[in-house]
Design goal:
Order of helices and strands: HEHEEEHHHHHEHHEHHEEEEHH
Protein name: Beta-lactamase-related domain-containing protein
Number of helices: 13
Radius of gyration: 23 Å
CATH architecture: 3-Layer(aba) Sandwich
Helix content: 25-40%
Number of domains: 1
Pfam family, one: Beta-lactamase
Organism: Adineta ricciae (Rotifer)
Keywords: Signal
InterPro entries: Beta-lactam-related, Beta-lactam/transpept-like, Beta-lactamase/esterase
Strand order of the largest sheet: 1-3-2-10-9-8-7
Structural class: alpha+beta
Strand content: 5-15%
């Protein structure tokens, strides 16, 4: 009898210890969450429980007000410093949506026209078969310059890159097909901004002055060196099975280099946080903070910027996958039909995203420091959140 009691006591102690341990796990999840939006907290926490993320942030604006602004996990693999509201993150191609917003703002001000020839603003571009390229061709990945082969160090030299692009021949007749311009998109669009801006500012400075500062948010294309300490390094172990070529590992590691952070590579080196990205997209579709900050784009320009410019059914020429682009924005009508017509934004490599769903008047952003190798794995982080948001707003 005594043995049985001892055994029961040991089992009880083990169970209580296990329960206590489970309850004391702290994923450092902190921030703002309004009543009725607690489900985002639970889904966000799942990403840490399931080891999808080391550190991340998520934000939602609804009807122009911040309803979710959470950060959690760890700043880096050492797990000694929390990933918090002060943390910044490189967001890869999520940057392209901000570039698209900057170009749309230039169009709204009459500085650019989507239908105009690039040479109207940038005469040197009209060489070697690129003479008839339009601004919209550049914005919707139809320019025929999907990639560029230069040393990594040249990515940091804007003038050298632009000269190379001016001299390069297109891989297809501009405007006749589309294929994702992973890095060249940013340089091409950025040079258009620089050419038409009366102050001749770089794209990064234009974004800082005309969007970030005026909208009370942080988005850097060209990070001030004083802010480098805030940038959480990306972790690439999840990509190892996809990177058999050592040179590819070198390219990815380059994105943790402070020199790259401080340069302007607007196709993919924007640095921000989820709160700022969601705020930007909210400002693209309406006012925020009870009308204190006015929308960035008027309704007519937003319609132009988010009008489909890759014909329905046209596959990416090189990747042979389905993709839909407006003037720099990804269009999500088919990718995320639950968001309703007119949803737009941009995904970033490894799992970041920023988007707006005008039908439901909400915007959403997710950023993180653990890169994953497939779209399916990346989307597991945030797709359940989007689905639940729509479900709740439909009730």
């Amino acid at each position: 009898m005594g043995c049985c009691l001892t055994l029961l006591l040991l089992i009880f102690i083990l169970v209580v210890s296990t329960i206590s341990y489970t309850k004391t796990i702290d994923y450092n999840i902190r921030g703002t969450i309004e009543p009725g939006w607690e489900f985002i907290y639970d889904l966000f926490q799942d990403n840490f429980v399931e080891h999808r993320d080391i550190g991340a942030s998520v934000a939602v604006y609804h009807q122009g007000e911040l309803v979710v602004g959470l950060s959690g996990g760890w700043f880096d693999q050492s797990q000694t410093k929390p990933y918090d509201e002060n943390t910044l993150q490189l967001v890869f191609s999520t940057t392209k949506g901000v570039v698209a917003a900057a170009v749309a703002l230039a169009v709204q001000r009459g500085l650019l026209n989507y239908s105009a020839l690039v040479t109207d603003y940038w005469p040197e571009y009209g060489q070697n078969g690129k003479e008839n390229t339009t601004v919209s061709d550049i914005l919707s990945h139809r320019a025929g310059l999907p990639d560029i082969t230069v040393p990594l160090e040249e990515y940091l030299n804007w003038t050298a890159i632009i000269h190379t692009l001016e001299q390069k021949s297109p891989s297809w007749a501009p405007g006749s097909a589309h294929s994702y311009h992973s890095l060249t998109y940013g340089w091409l669009a950025g040079e258009l901004i620089r050419r038409v801006d009366s102050k001749k500012r770089s794209l990064g400075q234009f974004v800082q002055d005309e969007i970030s500062t005026l909208s009370n948010l942080e988005f850097y294309i060209g990070l001030p060196s004083t802010e480098e300490y805030r940038v959480s390094p990306h972790e690439f172990s999840q990509l190892s099975q996809y990177l058999n070529d050592e040179s590819l590992n070198t390219v990815f590691d380059y994105f943790n280099d402070a020199r790259l952070h401080q340069a302007e590579v607007p196709g993919g080196n924007g640095i921000s946080n989820a709160w700022s990205i969601a705020r930007l997209y909210s400002l693209l579709i309406g006012d925020v903070d009870n009308g204190k900050y006015k929308r960035i784009l008027n309704e007519d320009i937003l319609k132009l910027a988010t009008k489909l410019n890759t014909p329905d059914g046209e596959l990416d020429l090189l990747l042979q996958t389905q993709s839909s682009f407006g003037m720099g924005f990804m269009l999500f009508d088919k990718t995320y039909p639950e968001l309703g017509p007119g949803s737009f934004g941009h995904l970033g490599a490894g799992g970041s995203v920023g988007l707006a769903a005008p039908l439901y008047n909400f915007s959403f952003a997710y950023v993180m420091n653990r890169m994953v190798g497939t779209v399916l794995d990346a989307n597991k982080r945030f797709e359940p959140m989007l689905t639940k948001i729509v479900d709740i707003l439909n009730k």
